[in-house]
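Reopening this ticket.

The earlier resolution said the output was attached, but the attachment link was broken on my side. Pasting everything inline this time so it's all in one place.
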Amino acid sequence: MTHEDVVMEAANPKDSNARDLDPFRGVDFSKLERSLRRPRTFMSMLLSAIVAAMTLLALIPLFSVVGLLLWRGGRKLSIAAFTQLPPAPLEQHGGFGNAILGTLVIVGIAALISIPIGVLSAIYLAESKPGSRVASTVRFAATVLTGFPSILAGVFAYGAVVMTTGGYSAVAGAAALSILMLPTILLTAEDAIRMVPAKMKEAAIGMGATDTQAVWMVLLPTAVPRILTGVMLAIARGAGETAPLLFTALFSNYWLLWHGHIKLMQPTASLAVLIYNFAGMPFANQEEMAWAAALVLVALVLITNLIGQSLSRRQVQ
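Inline output:
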């Protein structure tokens, strides 16, 4: 503080107190201005521009695929495409209604298999004692299964279900998809249960609830939104798989429903296998049908992912 400041402070003590209370006293605002002449500002703006450019570059393939699907597949979409059977060679009409139904049935059965096993296993892992060898082994196996090649799941289901039952079926396809869906459900459900505050369970036990009641009436209801997020992601993955279904469900040109009954133990059509079969056909109508089926499959997967993201955001809020 200079001699002049001391004199001014002695003359005007109120002004001195006001300056002491000013949080910006002594700050040189000219040094805070953004200028490309400053190395730190220049590097920050340069790296931000590079990151933005790389992000746009990464989005180009995504928007290209979606745009191509809308252009090639959108022209073939109609009510007939959702209600009719796949066309034969040289046939000009047809649809893939049986493939949509088959996909929903196969993925639905796979969800019925994988969700109970995944959630119950997640409860065991979340409630197990730290350092438990069984829990560590199960967690390690689930992590390995997340990168498990889908074709190997199909081969396993072929040997375990197709060879046992004597034929391709929707059940065999669901068994293969459940193997791929299980680790996603298990790991996300475990994380969801672990994120529930421990005080909630302690409060329930303090009120006289048993451990089982605390889990089923406190932990699970609180973690349900996050668990459903993992379930939606697992369903989205299962719906887009092709290789496992080639070994298990195969394909069919007929409806899965027959006189009001669903025939689960017979070859079943699916959107992924229909796209695989029709994409290599030398007939224009079947090739266009493959584009339309791909658009529908992408829409189903996108809707499933959006539902999962919506559930996750609600939990955060």
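Reporter confirms the inline version is readable. The chain has three domains: 1-33, 41-76, 80-316. The radius of gyration is 30 Å.
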